[in-house]
Amino acid sequence: MARRSFVAGNWKMHKTVGEATAIARELRGLVSQLRDRVEIAIAPPFTALHAVAKALEDSNVAVAAQNCHAEVQGAFTGEVSAPMCAEAGCRYVILGHSERRQLFGETDVGVNSKVKAVLAAKLLPIICVGETLAEREAGKTLEIVSAQVRGCLNGFSAEQGKSFVLAYEPVWAIGTGKTATSKQAQEVHAHIRGLLTAQWGEGVAQAVRIQYGGSVKPENAQELLSQPDIDGALVGGASLKAADFAAIVKAAPGA
After folding, report:
1. CB of 13 within 8 A of CB of 45?
2. 113, 71 contact by CB (below 8 A)
3. Which residues pair with 92 in a beta bridge?
4. pLDDT tens column, 120-163
5. So what's the pLDDT on residue 36?
6. What rounded mean pLDDT belongs to the chain?
7. Among candidates 254, 40, 194, 52, which has minimal Cα distance to 126?
8. Cβ–Cβ contacts within 10 Å for residue 55, how many?
9. Gap between the Cα atoms of 218 and 241, Å rounded
10. Which of 129, 215, 231, 253 has its CA 20 to 30 A from that of 208?
C-alpha cells in the first residue's frame, strides 16, 4: 500500500507571533506546488497558532498543536484543551513527545487519555515514542518502544487507529546532532508496524504513517525517508528555517 508521506515541523518554544507568521508565509510559497503529493504540517507555540492558521488558510500546510490537556475544560491553570486547539485552526496535535515525558512527567496512560480528547475534538493525533541512549545501549529499544506503543494505543479500535500518525523519535537523537542510521530507524519502524498489525490487522497497519524524528535535516532526509517503513518526518530545529524545512519536504517520496 502506498502511504502518502507526511512531514511535520515541531517549533517547540520558539518564535513570536510575528516571526511565526513570516516563516509560515515563506514556507507556504516554497511548498505550494506539492499540494497533492506530500502532507505538511507545522506546530508553532500556542500563542501563534491562530495567526499561523490564518496565514496558511487555503494552503497545503496544516497546523498542529504541540500538546493538549485531556479534559475539555476546568481548573487547570496554564493548560490548553483539544477543543481550544481546534478552534485556533489546528488539524493535528503532537502527543507524548520525549521532552513532555522527560521534563513534565508524561506517561503512556496520560498520552492515551489525551488521544481520546483529540479524537473527541475531531483532531488527529501524532503520537511520539522512543528510547533513551541508556535504553538503547542496554539493548532495550524494541522492548521500550513496544511498551509505549501498546500503552498509548490501548483500547482504540482499528477504525480509530487508521487515522493515527506515529512518530519514532530516539531520545538520544533529538537536538543532539546525532541521527539514527537509516538501518536503525527502519528496524524500529518495521517493529512498530508489526505491533500495529497485531493490534488492528494488516490493512490498518499498512495505512498508518510512521514518521521518524531526531536531528532530521536536508542532508540526511532523503536516505531516511526512502526506507520502506518510514513515512515522513517530525522535524525539530530544521523546521525553524522555511528553506531547510521545505528541502526536507521535497526529499520525501512522492514530492
Report:
1. yes
2. no
3. 64, 124
4. 999 999 999 999 999 999 999 999 999 999 999 999 999 999 99
5. 84
6. 96
7. 40
8. 20
9. 11
10. 215
The three cell numbers of residue 219 are 542532508
pLDDT for position 1: 56
Instruction: Give the other-Cβ count within 10 Å of 175's Cβ.
Output: 13
Q: How far apart are CA 53 and CA 187, in angstroms?
A: 36
- The residues that are catalytic are 97, 169
Helix, strand or coil for residue 107?
A: coil
**What structural domains does the chain harbor?**
29-251 (3.20.20.70)
pTM above 0.85, yes or no: yes
Percent of the chain that is helix, strand, coil (3-state, to 5)? 50, 15, 35
Q: Who contacts 46 (Cβ-Cβ below 8 Å, separation ≥6)?
A: 65, 66, 80, 88
Q: E strands of the chain, at which residues?
A: 6-10, 39-43, 61-65, 92-95, 124-129, 165-168, 209-212, 232-235
For residues 191-209, give the mean pLDDT.
98
- Give the pLDDT confidence score for residue 115 in this predicted structure: 98
DSSP 71: S
Give the range among 26-30, 33-37, 129-133, 245-249 with minimum mean pLDDT.
Answer: 33-37
Helix/strand number for the chain, H first, E second: 12, 8
Report residue 65 as a C-alpha cell. 498543536
- Measured CA to CA, the distance from residue 103 to residue 67 in angstroms comes to 13
